[in-house]
Amino acid sequence: MTGKGGNGMDVDGIPPAVLCEELRYRFGEHRAVDGVSLRVVPGEIFGLLGPNGAGKTTTIRVLTTLLPLQEGRAAVFGVDVARRRMEVRRLMGYVPQQLSANGALTGRENVSLFARLFDVPRRERRDRVAESLEVMGLTGDADRVAATYSGGMVRRLELAQALVNHPRLLILDEPTIGLDPLARSGVWERLNELRATTGMTVLVTTHSMDEADTMCDRVALMHLGRLRAIGTPAELKSALGEDATLEDVFRHHAGDALNDDRLPQGGFSEVRTTRRTAGRLG
Ligand SMILES: Nc1ncnc2c1ncn2[C@@H]1O[C@H](COP(=O)(O)OP(=O)(O)OP(=O)(O)O)[C@@H](O)[C@H]1O
C-alpha cells in the first residue's frame, strides 16, 4: 500500500479508489456505522467482512450515494461522495443484495436496460452490452429469458449489468450469497479475470471468511459499526498464530459475533442468507 499524504491523496498523487474518514451513520438513535476509516488501493479486491448488522451495507450505501453522508468524509477516486454525487455514480458499478435483474427479460435485454440507464452512447450500446455479457460468460445464453437462468448465471448477469458502464470501481454486496460452491467459484473466476484484464478495483462485502481469505487482497473486519482489524488475510492470520484461520482472527476481534443470536440480525437478513437467487426470478 502506498503512503498517505494530505487531503486524502496517496503520496504518489494517485487518490485511493475508496477513502472513508471517520464515517458515521445513524438510523434514529442507532449507530449503524460508527467512525469507519479505510482506504482501498486502486486495482485491489478489498473485502468488507462482518456478521449480520455489522454496518457493511450501510457503509456501501453511503459510498454509492444511495444514503446521504451524515458525518465524516468519503471519496471515490478523489471525488467527494457528498458534493459530487453524479460523478461518483459514473465511476462505479454496484450490485446490491436485492435482485436487480428482471426475469421476464432476456439477459441481453436486461443489460441493454442498464446501458440506457447509465446513458451509454446509443452507437456504442450494442457492442458494450455484448462485451459485458461475454466477460461474464453469458454470450451463449444472452437471448434466453433470465427466469430460466441458474442462480450463478443470474448473479453473473447482474455483474454484466453493473459492468456495462465501464466502472473503475465495482461494489458488490454479498455477491455469492445463496449460491452453491460451483456457482460461487464461477462468479469469483469471472471477477478475477476482469481484475486481471482491466485493473478494476473491487469492493466486496461477505459473511464468508473462507471466500475472503482466498479471494481478497486485503480485508477489513467490521463489527457493530466499527472496524476491528484491517490488513491482508496473511498478515491478520500470522499476527494471531501459525495455524490461525481468518475466522479465528474474526473471533479474536469480535468474540462470537459470527453466530451470535443476540445480534440485531432481523428476519429479513436471515431470508436473504438462505434464499436462492434463481428461485427469486421464477
Ligand atoms: N433502514 C434502516 N432503518 C433502521 N435500522 C437499519 C436500517 N438499515 C439497517 N439498519 C440497522 O443498522 C445496522 C447495520 O445494518 P447493515 O445492513 O449495514 O449491516 P450489514 O453488515 O450489511 O448486515 P447484513 O449482512 O445483514 O446485510 C443493523 O443493526 C440494522 O438493523
From TrEMBL:
Residues 18-249 form the ABC transporter domain. Residues 257-282 are annotated as: Disordered. Keywords: ATP-binding, Nucleotide-binding. InterPro entries: AAA+_ATPase, ABC_transporter-like_ATP-bd, P-loop_NTPase. Pfam families: ABC_tran. Transmembrane segments: none annotated. One of its GO terms (molecular function) is ATP binding. This is ATP-binding cassette domain-containing protein. It comes from Sphaerisporangium corydalis.
